[in-house]
Amino acid sequence: MTTPKLNLAVLISGRGSNFKAIHQAILNNEIQANICLLLSNQKNAEGLEYGQQHGLKTLALEKEPGLSREAYDETLIKHIDEAGANLVVLAGYMRLLSPKFVQHYEGRLINIHPSLLPKFPGLHAQRQALEARVNTSGCTVHFVDEGCDTGPIIAQREVPVLPGDTEESLSARILEQEHQLYPEVLAQMASGKIKWQQPA
Length: 200
Ligand code: GRF
What we know:
By secondary structure, the chain is of the alpha/beta class. Helix content is 35%, strand content 22%. The structure holds 5-O-phosphono-beta-D-ribofuranosylamine. The site of 5-O-phosphono-beta-D-ribofuranosylamine has 13 residues, from helix 1, strand 5 and helix 6.
């Protein structure tokens, strides 16, 4: 069976530097894929402006107070599916996902996290690494399941933790690797080297 072309829905909440790295890799023909939707839960996300400037279909969808997580995620599902996405890429998306969303995209929902999972899941992973005084940290691309950063690991990249590192310096060193690892993983998904679940 041939692997269909990757149609990515990229979900962000802020800066969007991983999204930009993925977009640049597509422009450079390093990933055979298309970004069919850039979605942000924050209207002012920096990455949205970049997406608009580069002619991508973008959508800012803020959750109304009082709307349940499930109802909000149902709207997300509708937009993502209507855009024709077959892989959902979380890139600094800072909202917890409902079980329904995770189940809907099982095997085709991936995330990048700034630690060597299973170490330091959740928020402030770089700070956690510094507090634990580890010599090595890094980043992980993984499939998303219903736990917090617990899904099957796809690929990891290590970076040293250096004496005198601050949260900022360690984050920057890890981010440099994130910008290489995420596009590399997507390239391998596009070529079929990394298996992912096709939509039903
Ligand atoms: C990255 O460190 C990523 O690992 C984490 O959130 C950060 C997003 O950065 N999930 P950016 O928005 O891609 O610049």
